[in-house]
Amino acid sequence: MTIATILAGKGGDTVTITAEHKVADAVKLLAECRIGAVPVLRDGQVAGIFSERDVIHCLAEHGSAALDRPVSDAMTAPAITIGRSEAVLGALTLMTRRRVRHLPVVEDGVLVGFVSIGDLVKYRIDKIEADAEAMRSYIQTA
Questions:
Q1: Which of 131, 57, 127 lies closest to 92, judged by CA?
Q2: Across-strand partners of 76?
Q3: Distances in Å between the alpha carbon of 56 and those of 61, 64, 66, 74, 118?
Q4: What does the DSSP assignment read for 56-109?
Q5: Sign of the C-alpha dihedral, residues 65, 67, 73, 74?
Q6: What percent of the chain has pLDDT over 70?
Q7: pLDDT on residue 112
């Protein structure tokens, strides 16, 4: 299966923030939306990702003044991105290898979605459970 399948199941719009916003704005957005990361846009393009980890690193380096800094100073950049046609296992491998938990999904330079490792693991577990149930059903009727 592909990332397109995951996005179809998630539905809804992707929450984003711009690089010019303050870190305090991004922290508020993460809290309000109950999410761990958000793609950062500059001129409509994905410039990076701002995550809970970025908050911690920025606060450790700059103290409370970090909240007044622009998101561009704290975000992880450049963002590692994938396309909709990427296989779920390929995306999981990329996340593991690059030690990231979120991937913007980009097509022709435009952000079309955002997936987390939780989204991908949930999909894999659901698929494995469905396959196991199909096998049990087959065995019981054979």
A1: 127
A2: 49
A3: 9, 11, 10, 10, 21
A4: HHHHHHHGGGGGGSBHHHHSB-SPP-B-TTSBHHHHHHHHHHHT-SEEEEEETT
A5: positive
A6: 100
A7: 95
Strand partners, 86: none
Whether pLDDT at 93 is above 90: yes
Dist. CA 68–CA 66, nearest whole Å: 5
Residue type, 54: D
Q: Measure the CA–CA gap between 135 and 129, rounded to whole angstroms.
A: 10
As a whole number of angstroms, the distance between CA 2 and CA 85 comes to 6
pLDDT score of 127? 82
Strand partners, 41: 18, 46
Max intra-chain CA distance, the chain = 68
The 10 Å Cβ neighbour count of residue 88 is 20
* Cα–Cα distance, 142 to 140 (Å, whole number): 6
pLDDT for 130 beyond 90:
no
For range 29-43, the mean pLDDT:
96
At residue 90, the pLDDT reads 94
- The per-residue pLDDT for 141 is 84
pLDDT at 91: 96
DSSP state at residue 64: G
